[in-house]
Protein: Membrane protein
Organism: Wickerhamomyces ciferrii
Amino acid sequence: MRLRKSVLAGLAVALIIAAYLGFADISLEHDKLVHFFVFFGLTLMFYWLFETSSTRAIRNLTFIICTLAGGIGSEFIQGLLPYRTFDPKDIICNVLGSSLALIFSVIYHKRIVEQRRQQRYEQLRSSIPLDVEDVDFDMDVESGAQSDRSNDLSKFSSREDVTDITLKNIKPEPVDDLSVE
């Protein structure tokens, strides 16, 4: 997992502004909207801070740090300050803003990962000839008998028909008997 330096710089500036707004002795007219948008922005930046294809890991990390620790924990810390008050409605706005940013980010991230996967498979498919006429299917490998599998494979002659390719890792198995009969 690598850090995106430009996002890190933006997140650092946003955290300084958010800390000032959260812990300074000021009152804002639209306090709940500020809570919502601050946590929306912080969560969005934190999610995209890490360059990874694992949506599950970054989703869980973002939820724990931004939504739980930031959104809920910051309100409890504010309740300990003499010039700030604890407000459960602020927690709701924090969690809603953070959760909405997390949902948008996960949906968009999954779309990006899927597009990259499709591009890799398209490169794989374009390097393999799919014309059935080019492939010789005269012998059935298991029985040794001749078979006409070209009729079975004719439905796969166009590239549009072959969209789902699943690659599996298969462990090699040792051969017990190498004698030739």
